[in-house]
Amino acid sequence: MTALIGASVLLIAASAIALVLGWVSANESAIWTSIVASVGAAVALALAFFRSRQEAVAVERRASAKEAEEAAKERTAAEQEATQEVVGIPDTKRFHRSECRYASSKGAQTMTKAAARKAGMRPCGICKP
User: How far apart are CA 51 and CA 57, in angstroms?
Assistant: First the structure.
């Protein structure tokens, strides 16, 4: 794309020079050269525009695909939390994995991880459920 824009700038400069030379010397072929160079510059700029639009669409598609992937990961984590069984200890306001040494404490209750969080419990720092 940068090459197309650079080429169009050069064609515009060549067109301006040819136009001035054509007017000064009354040379018809220089004026026609100026016209052809102007048309070439317009074509190069149009191609650069359409390429930049294609690149913008591709970037947007990649960004939306990445957002969709992140949303799917968040849904998976939330679904896992809603179904994962933990052992909550109301006295300590902690929840544990069932195999944790603190899971057999007095008043232990089996619940989902989401329910434990809703009850204001925090995860155990040792078993890290």
Answer: 10
